[in-house]
Structures are given as structure tokens and as C-alpha cells.
Design the sequence.
């Protein structure tokens, strides 16, 4: 195939740049994204070519921003799409599906997708050191992928992060740097270090490539539904990037002839304790007001989201909706998903299911709609959120008599 | 000389104030607005500051003292 990436293009003014490690337009400071040669891609991609590819996100390589085939994160993606019949029955939905990134490889969150793309592209651009600023899933994924790829790795974290989350990085032996000070100070320092060092900061100077990894959730969904776009999706929002890229992915599939049509309603989910984007939607605004996060859904706690404006635009374009749920509703929804479908999601998953329930109640998602809820991380990572609400084991004496008495079971003869 | 890029938000009550002009008078920095959205209820600017690094630092602190919120151009980078 001829070169598929034509340029990086400014999402605001349209100025084009070479496909290097840059992320902001020099002219208007707008964010850059990858511009593809869809006509050329259409010539090489087909349902058959995808089916012949590996059972990972790399089966969609024609629509991903890498040039070679030396992939990092070879097993990321292609997670199960579960027909959620029990949860669907509870909610009154006949065609509810859960896209289960709880079991993504290697670090059990959707970040394995974006990091696989980012590190592969970083190495293509000549980087041997990767970095990120993170409070959780992103750091885990960058650390693990860097370890397997033999790349140097720097992970910047706030100084007050919980011990379990720090351990999730240290085990891979990256350089973990705890920064004293509040979140804003950490944020600013990381941006300055990214400008100073010639490193591949996955979500800063490599962001145009990194963000494209999220499209694979849309590609897989369409393929796993039998080459059709869903009627409705519910997507958790942190920076808002994931939601915009699911929309982009579905439309790219249509553009290159993989899908016949796309009329998916894209719905966004946030926690009430950090809901700048959904609040803007509820108030009918096309801009959001940044907030100080205060929610148990830490992986969505981005108060000043980089793609918030674009998420609002996407939801408006697709005629979707947004809503937010309380921390109590998040916990209840984590339990509901676990107890109906056997899937233990992290708090972001509780946000998705909670908002799904609200949208159904509001009559915005209908019984027959093919609906996909995106579960982006594993509950084992945020056990503290539910530890006080799942009860205790039933304790018995070590005798058959106590067991049968406790559970009211007749002794077998 | 350093060049640094920031996203500056005005609190609603300060939207009519010429804050960036004042900063240019109070500190030895040159400001270049690249994008902006100023309305009755919200106001933000994407601005490049040129000057000595320490002076830019003082100018940013000056903006904060005037009630502005100053973020990196990328907004939140901690994910």
C-alpha cells in the first residue's frame, strides 16, 4: 500500500504538518490529528483482509497511524463483545452488548490500545524513552509496554497517590517520579518537562497517534456485531477523546467501504463529581467550564478535558446525549453489572452502566436498539470503591451440620 | 528568550477587564493571542508568551493573582 498517513492536520485551522512528534498547531495552537489517504486505504482494506489479520487491534492496521509492522503491544485489543442478556432483561433492552476491555492485554484497561499505538509510533520516530503523566491505568500500560519493548520509561505521578496504584507501576521497574504539590502543579510540570525533553510523552507530543488507538474499539464493535454499526453507544468520558474516536472509527469504516451506513447515537457518561462535559450538554452550551474533580471514578477525573469541546460536538452531530451519575449510583451499577453479567468493572464502568440506566429511563435508548456499553477497566484495580458495600462471607464452624443448618440444606442420604 | 504557550481562563466577573494588556504593562513579556472565545459568561485565550523564563513565570503568577486560571496549552495531561 502507498503511504496511508498524509500529514498531521490542525483540527481548528486545517494547517498541515509532517507526521512527526508534534501535537499543537504552531499557528493557532489547535490540536493536531492524523490525516489519512482514505482513497488509497479503500483499495487495500476489506472485510476479508481484516478477517485474515491477527486477533488483536493490529488487524485494523490499515487505519492506524503506524508505518511499519514492528508492533509493540502485539496482543492488545480484540476483547469480547458480550451479548448482555441478563442486564438487558433487567433494563428492558433486547440487544444490549458490553464491550469488555476489563480483559485487555496486558494491563486490563482500554489504555492498552492507545499505548500500543503510541509506543509503536514512538519507536518508528526514533524514540527510545517514553513517558506519561498519570494517576492510574495509563501509567500501568505505559510501564508494562515499555518493559516488554525494552524502552526506557518515566512515569510522573502525584505525590499523594494510593500505594496500590504506585505498586502497579513499580512492578515493571520504570522510573517513577512522585511530584509534590497539587494536581495543577503536577499537570503543569509534566507539560513543561514534555517541552524540555526529547522523549515520547504518549499523551502529549505523541497524542495525535496515541488517540487514534481508541478507534479500534469502534472497529471491533462493528466487526463483532456482524459488520454493522450499533444504534446506540454509551461511552465514559475523561478527556472526551475516546468518545470522539469511536465516532471517527465508525465513520472511517463507512468511508472505506467496510460499513454501508452509520447512524449511531453517541452518548457520553460522566460522574457527577467531575462532569464538566455533561453539565455543558445539559445546559445546552457548546463550551464547558472546568471543575475540581471529587468522585470515586478517579480514571475519569479530568476537570479540564482536552477534548471536551470535540466531545460536545460529536454528541450533537450524532444526535446522542450525555448524563452523569452520583458515586452511590456508580457503586450500584458496578454491582449490577457484576451480578447480571459476571463482569467486574472499575468505577468508570459503573459510570457507563449508571448513565445507560438513566438514558433508558429517559426513553432515549429503546428496547430494540442495538446498544453497546463500553467498559474500559477492570474492577480489581478499584476495589476500594466497593469494599464496604458487598457484604461479608458467611462464617461457619468446620462441620457438615453447621453448613447444612446455615444454608437450610437437607443432608444427603 | 523563552516562548511558552498557555490556556488562560477568565472568571466571569473579570471578562470586561483588559487583563492581558495589564500583564504586558506590568511584566517584560510579549503576548500573542492565537485563539480566543470571549462571551458574556465565559472567556478563554490561547496565548504565547515571549520573554525571559523567570519573567514569564512572574507574569503567570500575576495572572493568577488577578483571578485567572492558567493551564498548559494541552489542558489536563495527567490521565
Sequence:
Amino acid at each position: 500500500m502507498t503511504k496511508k498517513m498524509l500529514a498531521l492536520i490542525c483540527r481548528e485551522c486545517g494547517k498541515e504538518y509532517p507526521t512527526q512528534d508534534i501535537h499543537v498547531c504552531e499557528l493557532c495552537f489547535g490540536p493536531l490529528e492524523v490525516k489519512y489517504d482514505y482513497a488509497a486505504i479503500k483499495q487495500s482494506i476489506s472485510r476479508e483482509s481484516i478477517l485474515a489479520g491477527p486477533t488483536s487491534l493490529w488487524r485494523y492496521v490499515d487505519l492506524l497511524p503506524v508505518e511499519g509492522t514492528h508492533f509493540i503491544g502485539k496482543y492488545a485489543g480484540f476483547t469480547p463483545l458480550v451479548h448482555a442478556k441478563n442486564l438487558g432483561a433487567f433494563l428492558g433492552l433486547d440487544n444490549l452488548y458490553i464491550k469488555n476491555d476489563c480483559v485487555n492485554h496486558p494491563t486490563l484497561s482500554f489504555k492498552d490500545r492507545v499505548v500500543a499505538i503510541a509506543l509503536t509510533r514512538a519507536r518508528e520516530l526514533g524514540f527510545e524513552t517514553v513517558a506519561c503523566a498519570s494517576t492510574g491505568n495509563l501509567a500501568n500500560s505505559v510501564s508494562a509496554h515499555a518493559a516488554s519493548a525494552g524502552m526506557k520509561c518515566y512515569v510522573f505521578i502525584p505525590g499523594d497517590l494510593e500505594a496500590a496504584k504506585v505498586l502497579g507501576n513499580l512492578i515493571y521497574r520504570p522510573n517513577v517520579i512522585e511530584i509534590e504539590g497539587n494536581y495543577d502543579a503536577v499537570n503543569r510540570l509534566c507539560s513543561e518537562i514534555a517541552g524540555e525533553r526529547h522523549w515520547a510523552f504518549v499523551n502529549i507530543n505523541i497524542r495525535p497517534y496515541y488517540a487514534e488507538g481508541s478507534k479500534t474499539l469502534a472497529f471491533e464493535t462493528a466487526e463483532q456485531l456482524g459488520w454493522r454499526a450499533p444504534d446506540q453507544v454509551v461511552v465514559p468520558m475523561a478527556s472526551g477523546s475516546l468518545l470522539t474516536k469511536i465516532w471517527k472509527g465508525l465513520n472511517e469504516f463507512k468511508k472505506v467501504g467496510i460499513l454501508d451506513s452509520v447512524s449511531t447515537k453517541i452518548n457520553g457518561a460522566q460522574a457527577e463529581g467531575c462532569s464538566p462535559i455533561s453539565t455543558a450538554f445539559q445546559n445546552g452550551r457548546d463550551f464547558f467550564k472546568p471543575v475540581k474533580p471529587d468522585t470515586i471514578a478517579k480514571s475519569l477525573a479530568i476537570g479540564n478535558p482536552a477534548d471536551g469541546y470535540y466531545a460536545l460536538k460529536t454528541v450533537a452531530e450524532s444526535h446522542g446525549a450525555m448524563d452523569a451519575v452520583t458515586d452511590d449510583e456508580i457503586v450500584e451499577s458496578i454491582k449490577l453489572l457484576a451480578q447480571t453479567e459476571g463482569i467486574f468493572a472499575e468505577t468508570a464502568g459503573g459510570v457507563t452502566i449508571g448513565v445507560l440506566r438513566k438514558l433508558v429511563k429517559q426513553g432515549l435508548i429503546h428496547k430494540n436498539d442495538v446498544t453497546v456499553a463500553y467498559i474500559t477497566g477492570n474492577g480489581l484495580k478499584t476495589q476500594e470503591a466497593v469494599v464496604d458495600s458487598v457484604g461479608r462471607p458467611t462464617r461457619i464452624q468446620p462441620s457438615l451440620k453447621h453448613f447444612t443448618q446455615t444454608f437450610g440444606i437437607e443432608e444427603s442420604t | 528568550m523563552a516562548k511558552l504557550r498557555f490556556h488562560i481562563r477568565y472568571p466571569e466577573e473579570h471578562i470586561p477587564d483588559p487583563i492581558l494588556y495589564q500583564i504586558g504593562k506590568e511584566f517584560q513579556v510579549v503576548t500573542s493571542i492565537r485563539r480566543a472565545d470571549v462571551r458574556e459568561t465565559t472567556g478563554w485565550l490561547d496565548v504565547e508568551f515571549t520573554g525571559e523564563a523567570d519573567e514569564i513565570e512572574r507574569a503567570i503568577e500575576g495572572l493568577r493573582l488577578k483571578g485567572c486560571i492558567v493551564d498548559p496549552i494541552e489542558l489536563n495531561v495527567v490521565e
